């Protein structure tokens, strides 16, 4: 089952990324640090991703959906049927690394 892309103006930049940049993101989303396939990844079964035949630019929304789900809680994703916005992911990362951030603006400051 493939993930559903949630419209996200902050993530739309992926449509302009080149194939090499997307490939790095895809590898991080699909495989862990040991090179093992992640249990929760769904890109390998996504029709648009498969049909793109390695040209990740053609499947940027599938990649974006995978990122949205990767950034969300697995159980909550199942209930809501979509992942989280890129802004939510950034705010969570900033909190985790103890960077000050304004959740409303997702503006990072020191």
Structure characterization notes:
The protein is mainly alpha-helical and 110 residues long. The protein has 5 helices and 2 strands; from the N terminus they run αααααββ. It has a two-stranded antiparallel ribbon. The protein is globular. The chain starts with 18 loop residues before the first helix and ends with a strand.
Task: Break the fold down into its secondary structure elements and pairings.
Blueprint: H1 19-30, H2 47-51, H3 60-70, H4 74-80, H5 86-96, E1 100-102, E2 107-109
Helix/strand/pairing category: mainly alpha
Q: What share of residues is helical?
A: 40-55%
Count of individual helical segments: 5
DSSP strand tally: 2
Relevant terms:
110 residues, two-stranded antiparallel sheet, 5 helices, 5% strand, globular
Overview in brief:
The protein has 5 helices and 2 strands. It has helices at 19-30, 47-51, 60-70, 74-80, 86-96; strands spanning 100-102, 107-109. It has a two-stranded antiparallel ribbon with strand order 1-2.
